Amino acid sequence: MEIGWYFERIKKSLDRTDRSEINDVLTALHDAYSRSANIFVIGNGGSAANASHFAQDLAKGVFPDQKTEPRFRAISLTDNVAYISALANDDGYEDIFEAQLRTYYRAGDVLIAISGSGNSPNVLKAAKFAKSKGLVVVGITGYDGGQLLTISDLSIHVRLNEMCTVESIHSLILHYIVLQLRELFGQDTVDARCFPA
Question: What is the pTM for the complete model shown?
Answer without folding.
Answer: 0.94
